[in-house]
Amino acid sequence: MSLKFLSTLVALGAALMPALGFAQGTESQIDSGNTAWMLTATALVLLMNIPGLALFYGGLVRRTNLVNTLAQCFVITSLVTFIWIIAGYSIRFYGGSEGIVPGYLGTMDRFLLQGMGLTTAHALAPTIPEAVFMMYQMTFAIITPALIVGAIVERIKFSSMLVFMGAWSLLVYAPVAHMVWGGGVLGVQGVLDYAGGTVVHVNAGIAALVMCLMLGKRQGWKPEGEGFEPGNISLAIIGAAL
User: What DSSP letter does each residue of 67-132 carry, written as one string?
Assistant: First the structure.
């Protein structure tokens, strides 16, 4: 990613903020500099998944499964975005120690993002618009299930993968994120997770291990015969660099 692209993105965000009312000095004390940086950070995390992770995984699979692997990362992005807007954001970051399941799942106060305005802010990020906070957190909700793809590529039907990722996003990622980041049982006990080590990496790693155990050994792999050599190392290196 070039510095020219990043500087253009920051400049565009800063130019749009006054027009959108993000820097009006409202009751939520929106800060234009903080907002510009968070917009940039949101774009960077999204680029880690598409095209970054998609190209990385795509380059490591056999050539015949390249398109399928790319599609998995792209479709997961779309699927989780819908889930996040409908209910994911609300049950993760609202309710604190109360909610649908007290301490484990939040409330539906932001169902379909109702009540979110241009000048509203979340308590966890009082100096940026809540819409920016919502989008930033959404990128982590997207990349976490996408990380699991690396363990199940070439081993699962596309439709089955979608069902699993959608269910996992609501039934596993949502409670863990709420418990740690949303004021749930772990958060109130002092658990800190600034870089996503628990909510993202440990969570995705355990899910990937469970999926491998459930799916069993890869079919068609023969140590003495046809191997599973990466189809395109160049794509994998480009994806890793992103």
Answer: HHHHHHHHHHHHHHHHHIIIIIHHHHHSSTT-SSBTTTB--STTGGGTT--SS--BTTBTTS-HHH
pTM of the predicted protein model: 0.83
Q: Maximum Cα–Cα distance for the chain, whole Å?
A: 68
pLDDT of amino acid 111: 93
**How far is Cα 89 from Cα 101, in angstroms, rounded to an integer?**
15
- Cα angle: 204, vertex 144, 148; to 5 degrees: 50
- Site of tokens 């109702």: 114
Which residue in the block uniquely carries the two structure tokens 């095209």?
51
Average pLDDT along the chain: 85
What H or E segment, with its residue span, contains residue 120? none
Rounded to whole angstroms, the Cα distance separating 36 from 100 reads: 34
Question: Under a CB-based contact definition with an 8 Å cutoff, are residues 211 and 148 in contact?
Answer: yes
Task: Identify any residues that bridge with 92 across adjacent strands, giving them in sequence order.
Answer: none
Q: Which two tokens stand for residue 63?
A: 């050539």
Tokens of 144: 């976490």
How far CA 61 is from CA of 54, 72, 237, in Å, comes to: 11, 13, 13
